[in-house]
Amino acid sequence: RGRPGTITEIEALIARYGLTGRARLVGAVPHAELLARLPRYGVMCLPSHNETFGMVYVEAMLSGVPILYSRGTGIDGFVEGIDAAVGCDPNSVDSILAGLEELLDRHGTLRATLLAQHDQIAARFAAGPHVERYNRELGLVA
User: Fold this and answer.
1) Where are the strands (E) in 1-72, listed by range?
2) How far apart are CA 122 and CA 59, in angstroms?
3) Half-sphere CA count of 82, side-chain side, radius 13 A
4) N or C: less crowded end of the chain, CB within 10 Å?
C-alpha cells in the first residue's frame, strides 16, 4: 500500500540501483501467506517511525529471519541478547545501511542462531506471562 507517486518513486529507485527482480513491493499480504513466505527471506528490514510493538519482528525471528528495527520505538527494549536483532536510527541512512550490512555479513550465523533459539524466543514473546503481569499490575489477580 502507498500513494501511487511514492510507489512509482520507490520502483524507480529499485531499477536505478539494479535491483529489479531482487527487490519488489508486494503490498498487503494475508497473514498466513506472510508466515509461509518469511522463512525464504534473508532479512526483515523495517526501520519505521513511531512503530508499535510489531509482531512481524517476532514472526520473522521465529522463522529464522534476522531483523533490522528502529531504536527507541516498537520492539526496542524487548530484543536485548538476541544477536540477530539489530537496531538502527530510522532517520539516518548511514545507520540503516550499517545495520543491513551487519545482518548481511553475518546472515548465515544469525539465521542458525535464531533457529537454534526458536523455543527461547517463542517463550520470551509468549502472550501468557505478559497478560499475567498486566493483570497483576491492574490488581486483577494476586
Assistant:
1) 44-45, 67-70
2) 9
3) 33
4) C
